[in-house]
């Protein structure tokens, strides 16, 4: 009997947790398997992003269409990020986890060595001065910028560059095949990663900050299980749970790797093969979303900033909380799609409302767990965006089962 992919992934998650708790040494020895899985994913990111974006853009029939998809994508990113932040702010104001926080300061956070980029620098860094160097550094955003321009230029010359178009279309097919193979071993990779993470996690630190952790997780759950599914149901006319099942493996990979970029190959493959979203939408929405649309990170930054304020006994009024909405949006856009990136860009939020940067030291110890959760929500947000924009574009998807009556 063939076990379904999402069941395999759930078994891998549960098995990883059990192994990590019961046999931490074995889990430690299996670390290299998790590392191998992450390396496989990273290995294909750059060729996959280039092939899927370029072949996606050339398949968009006209400029008007490209503009429409672009505008909808931008509006979706902005609206869902702000909704996520508002949910986070509401919860942190209601629960007030910082008031009685028992502050662990085990690991000193040196804010000086973690200076986040300024907004001007974030924008400058999008344009690569050397595309090969950006590719070698696995710097996804400059590669996306280049691919976007390259795809548009190819569309402008069309027939004159037919072999180049065919090359990228063929490369895209090969990369999808490769991704499919990596997907097949995803449960093993997820199992090893989770087992190792659980074996490393100190329960004592988790207990110290339990109210804070629960506030962030509740916010993420509301966004992932209420806000986004409502959008899917109402706007896209899709059954959210069916869609969740189809995307389960990518979400588990996001959770275990804590990197939206590493998860990108899997989410693109599932959206195309299982859900049936066209490559022009996935090629455009997913790479861009993985790097700039981070609902989970934005929510987390807002909760963490208010938590720190509460713990230091500082009241933030409405105007300052609005400033948090703006800066948390920017900080989530600026965060790279790699582990812990959100913790670093939080400096932007804290500085804007004059909170002590050392506050980050308080939440440092539990960041990994929250990073895993927010990354899963980031990838879920991108995936919901892709399918929603596909539906608005009139796409019918792979199976009628995904659509609601
Ligand atoms: N790890 C997150 C991601 O890759 C970014 C963050 O640290 O919040 O989406």
Low-confidence stretches: none
Helix content class: over 70%
- Please name the CATH architecture of the domain at 61-142 and 202-402: Orthogonal Bundle
What is the radius of gyration computed over CA atoms, rounded to a whole number of angstroms? Answer: 21 Å
CATH fourth-tier homologous superfamily of the domain at 61-142 and 202-402:
Sodium:dicarboxylate symporter
Can you summarize the main beta sheet?
none
| Proportion of residues in β-strands | under 5%
- Could you tell me how far the N terminus lies from the C terminus, measured between alpha carbons in angstroms? 31 Å
Ligands in the model, by name, code or SMILES, are: aspartic acid
The CATH topology name of the domain at 61-142 and 202-402 reads Proton glutamate symport protein
**Integer average pLDDT:** 90
Class of secondary structure makeup? mainly alpha
Number of strands: 0
Number of helices: 19
CATH class of the domain at 61-142 and 202-402 equals Mainly Alpha
SSE layout and pairing:
Blueprint: H1 5-22, H2 24-29, H3 31-58, H4 63-95, H5 119-126, H6 131-136, H7 140-157, H8 162-184, H9 186-200, H10 203-208, H11 210-236, H12 240-257, H13 260-275, H14 279-292, H15 295-311, H16 318-334, H17 341-352, H18 359-364, H19 367-392
Bound molecules: aspartic acid (ASP).
